[in-house]
Design a protein that fits this description.
- By secondary structure, this protein is α+β, with helices and mostly antiparallel strands.
- The protein contains 8 helices and 11 strands.
- It folds into 2 domains: 52 residues; 219 residues, Extracellular Endonuclease, Chain A.
- A hairpin with a 5-residue loop joins strand 1 and strand 2.
- InterPro entries: DNA/RNA_non-sp_Endonuclease_sf, Endo_G_ENPP1-like_dom.
């Protein structure tokens, strides 16, 4: 009888302890829920912002290329040659887009040039009724490419000057104003038999600013930048149709710029751009070729 009473007391004690434990857990869960539900929204927002900030700090930082108007024409300067006449000859203002590096993209870089398989390389120059060089149309291959220096091939410097070539010495990267600007570059066609790639070919040379002729970086895209694309394509044994057209305003003797179009036979290369014949820090009279520092 005594043993049964003890067992009963022990059972009651166990039940009491379990009840207390269950009650405590329930109260603890309720307190936690209440605490969570009463957390201010501003604290949650702050925590989110901190997490985003930490994630951004872990991201790799990219370098920014800074625009330098001393080396590259501003958009305002480049657009100064886009008169109504020039815009019409380029196909209309809707097709002309600033590329952020001194030049303009025409028709989203597409052109209507046709490249026919099997045609032999050629280069044809055209002048207008005023004697101005207006276009060179060509079909180029690895065989037309010239790697030798001009002096070694007898196509070196000349004292002949194209119309409006009134040279100016300048300060900065472009330390002179004008170059003898080849429509079709010597390096692209200098090995084509029968074509005069010298600096004396009046049908292939016009007065061109040093920037428009020489600039060749991704953030300063003069004619040399796009010629390099053609050179690299030829080096890879591509066949390339390449056309350069000088655009003049009215009867000016200095071109407002040059339209460059290229298309390879395999379609790996295609562009259609306009290089304005301008120079940072200089104002040019396109009727005469005389200029002054801005």
């Amino acid at each position: 009888m005594f043993k049964q009473k003890n067992k009963f007391k022990l059972l009651v004690t166990i039940v009491s302890v379990m009840t207390l434990l269950l009650t405590g857990c329930s109260q603890s869960n309720q307190t936690a829920q209440e605490s969570s539900s009463t957390t201010p929204k501003t604290k949650v927002v702050q925590q989110s912002k901190q997490a985003i900030s930490q994630a951004k700090q872990k991201e790799p930082q990219t370098k920014t290329t800074h625009y330098n108007s001393q080396y590259t024409p501003t958009e305002e300067l480049s657009r100064s040659v886009l008169t109504n006449d020039v815009v019409t000859k380029l196909g209309g203002l809707a097709l002309i887009k600033w590329n952020g590096a001194g030049a303009f993209i025409i028709n989203n870089n597409h052109n209507k040039l046709k490249v026919i398989r099997g045609n032999r390389p050629y280069a044809q120059c055209q002048v207008d009724d005023l004697g101005r060089p207006v276009m060179v149309d060509s079909l180029l291959t690895k065989a037309t490419r010239q790697y030798k220096n001009r002096r070694k091939t007898g196509n070196g410097a000349s004292k002949w000057k194209p119309a409006g070539f009134h040279q100016m010495k300048l300060n900065g990267k472009w330390n002179h104003l004008y170059d003898r600007g080849h429509l079709l570059a010597y390096s692209l066609v200098g090995n084509l038999r029968g074509f005069d790639a010298s600096e004396r070919n009046i049908k292939n040379i016009a007065t061109q600013t040093a920037w428009a002729n020489e600039a060749r970086s991704h953030n300063s895209t003069g004619q040399n930048y796009f010629e390099t694309k053609v050179r690299k394509a030829l080096d890879r044994h591509k066949t390339v149709r390449y056309r350069v057209t000088n655009i003049y305003q009215g009867r000016n003797i200095i071109p407002s710029g040059a339209q460059l179009q290229a298309k390879s036979l395999d379609g790996s290369l295609e562009f259609n751009v306009f290089i304005p014949n301008v120079q940072p820090g200089v104002l040019i009279n396109y009727e005469t070729g005389y200029a002054k520092v801005a």
